[in-house]
Amino acid sequence: MTKGTLTTERLKHLLSQFTDKRILVIGDLMLDEFVWGNVKRISPEAPVPVVEFTEEYCYPGGAANVARNLCEFTRGVSMMGVIGLDTGGERLKELLRERHIDLSCVQESATHQTIVKTRIQARQQQIVRVDREKKRPLSPEQKQHAIAQLEEKLPTLDGIIIEDYGKGFLQQDLVDAISERARAAGKIVTVDPNPGNPLQWHGVTAIKPNRGEAFTASGVPFSDPVSPVENDEALFQVASRLLDKWQSDQLLITLSEQGMLLFQRDAEPYHTPPRARTVFDLSGAGDTSIALYTLALCAGATAVEAAEIANHAGGVVVGKLGTATVNAQELIESFQDAHE
């Protein structure tokens, strides 16, 4: 196992380089709704809690949450995806524009329904989640339009993040077109895959599955984590298979309470331990990790440095409720706390 060498000074230098990076996020766009209230009684109609409404919030969700995380560090963020001509789509556009995200590559379609996920929360407990979605693939015309948009924007980009939530936007022919053009242009491309949408990811820079997704994608039967992680032979077998299968330069496997494990073709594996002091909510942590990992690579970080930054970023957001983000100061403080 290699060891990290990221110092506070090096971290601050990399963060200073984030501000002018231009990243395109491609994937399934969603709107996250949070309805908050108090529970004081059980309904007389059914054995369920009655939530007395107090407030509600909306946030960009799915691939849009990756863009939201990037906005804490750079104004050069753009999105590619599809939304419906509906209330959810209008609200999502409004939220993204408030964050100065470029929506020129977002298609609006009368045949699509904007995905909305509504979470009912009582204090810190989620009572129920209501999903409004209809999975629909792109039409040939929509796909060609997306490729044309990519070709137009590609010269201005430093990197691309492909965020697959398995809702229909990403299909193999579109993924192939994106990766081929990006590779020819020498752009960094990172992927957050979805096991329910088993695509091939040939030629991308890095892929970031979690442990369960990695086992599913590799075809290796799932086994429980082993501690220390250096002794997890099944996980190392999975990583070897995925590097051969996907032919990516890097494979970053997130391991929840065990941190992250980075694999590269010509280097020893690198394990970065968990950085979270408290864990309130795991939702959105993967979005934060892929956003910061990609930004770091685009800023000139090594893969090991990028993994450390992504791990600290994920550790900060799991200490917050909801699909939260991290900022530069929080990232620096997390790093300093870990190295005291």
Number of domain modules: 1
Provide the CATH top-level class: Alpha Beta
CATH superfamily: Ribokinase
- Put simply, the count of helices is 10
Q: Helical content, roughly?
A: 25-40%
- Strand pairing plus helix content: what structural class? alpha/beta
Main beta sheet strand tally, sense and closure: 9 strands, mixed
Strand order of the largest sheet: 5-4-1-8-9-10-11-12-13
Helix and strand string, N-terminal first?
HEEEHEHEEEHEHEEHHEEEHHH
Shape: globular
Low-confidence stretches: none
As a percent range, the share of strand residues is 25-35%
Q: Can you give a write-up of this model?
A:
There is one protein chain. The chain is an alpha/beta fold. It has a single domain, classed as 3-Layer(aba) Sandwich (UDP-N-acetylmuramoyl-L-alanine:D-glutamate ligase). Helix content is about 35%, strand content about 30%. The protein has ten helices and 13 strands. The strands form two sheets. The protein has a nine-stranded mixed sheet, with helices on both faces. The protein has a four-stranded mixed sheet with strand order 3-2-6-7. It is globular, with a radius of gyration of 20 Å. The protein starts with 7 loop residues before the first helix and ends with a helix.
